[in-house]
Amino acid sequence: MKIFVPNQSGSGETRVALVPATVKKLVSPAVEIVIESLAGQLSSHGDGEYRTAGAGIGEGEGWAQADIVLVVKPPSPEQIGQMRNGAILAGMLSPERNPSLLNAYAHQGISAMAMEYLPRITRAQAMDTLSSQSNLAGYKAVILAAAKCPKIFPMLMTAAGTLQPAKVFVIGAGVAGLQAIATARRLGAIVTAYDVRPAVKEQVQSVGAKFLELPLETAGAQDAGGYAKELTAEQQQKQRDLMAQVVTESDVVITTAAVPGKPAPKLIPADVVARMLPGAVIVDLAAETGGNCELTEPGQIVTKHGVTIIGTINIPATVPYHASQVYANNLANLLKLIITKEGQPKIDTADEVIAGVLLCHGGQVIHPRAKELLAHA
Ligand code: NAD
Fold first, then answer.
1. d(Cα 113, Cα 26) in Å, to the nearest integer?
2. Which of 233, 249, 317, 362 is most buried, with most CB under 10 Å away?
3. Cβ neighbours for 372, distance < 8 A, ≥ 6 positions apart
4. Which residues line ligand 1 (CB under 6 A)?
5. Direct distance between the N- and C-terminal alpha carbons of the chain, in angstroms, rounded to an integer
6. Are 105 and 348 in contact (CB under 8 A)?
7. What is the pLDDT of residues 314-370, one digit of tens each?
8. pLDDT tens digit string along 100-157?
């Protein structure tokens, strides 16, 4: 059986789907791995390192020859068109943003697996790419903020006077938010955080931040899957008003608020930005889905009313070495459910995890969410 990992750096991606350490674990007499030349270059893994780990180095022909193709982002329609009927494709296929590829996978007879749709259950934690990448995004958001902030984060008592610690406010305390809190705390900042899911309060406190209590009725704000539900327009307005004071007193605001399948809730209006401290920094981790701040420009770093607003997208790709390492481990753990003891690929559609990620199989679009996307396309 052959696994192929393409070089996706041409489309601006810095990460790679397998790193040499995972190649070493996966490769066997029955499992051949081919890495497209220079696939790991931007994440600091040279072809020689992959060869030493047991992989072959190939070119684009891998698309047509592989039983399993592992990607970071979706392939192009041309690349899909080269794949074998019955081959497996796994990666962050972002079906919401790429609905047109769904029919291409089905037409080509590919079993396409979107890592974003992995069920958030205990058994699947080691395959959870949303968590592994968000965790790094939360860390890097703080580093980006610290680099732009005119203040340092820790309190320093020096002969030249005492420097007060920076105040950081984190909005949305899921995986990225909790890591942002922990990172900002490690740098010495005073951290406050808020999330609509009341269950998060204890987690926020356990990583060293103060939980902001708002007189907002959010008892039903968590769905059965542990995700936030969208607030009503009236609740959102109340939340914006109530949070404004903390936002305007903070040196750094990191926003991570997201509701699956919906645009990011707008939590910081332009007039609140105008009232923020001079030199304050907002890092909007929700930029890709429209941003939590009204003035965020996705993909850009802008200064508005003296406030730096960082809307950089794909932040995990800015730490490609470690982002690739955890992503590769996520994929390798998924492959344990797919590759049989004899080293053959086998898709068990009755497995909850496989059924959760499988968009297309046997020439059909089979995932309910994918079918819904096509119905609305
Ligand atoms: P996410 O990226 O969907 O959202 C980020 C955060 O934004 C969430 O905490 C959400 O509650 C919050 N949010 C939404 N609207 C908001 C608003 N108006 N104001 C403030 N905050 C708002 O979330 P995520 O990081 O993917 O995590 C979602 C949940 O899944 C968490 O409870 C997490 O602990 C859980 N999880 C479970 C597993 C598992 O395997 N059991 C794995 C990973 C995550």
1. 19
2. 317
3. none
4. 120-122, 125, 128, 130-131, 134, 171-177, 194-197, 200, 226-228, 231, 239, 256-260, 265, 267
5. 36
6. no
7. 999 999 999 999 999 999 999 999 999 999 999 999 999 999 999 999 999 999 999
8. 999 999 999 999 999 999 999 999 999 999 999 999 999 999 999 999 999 999 999 9
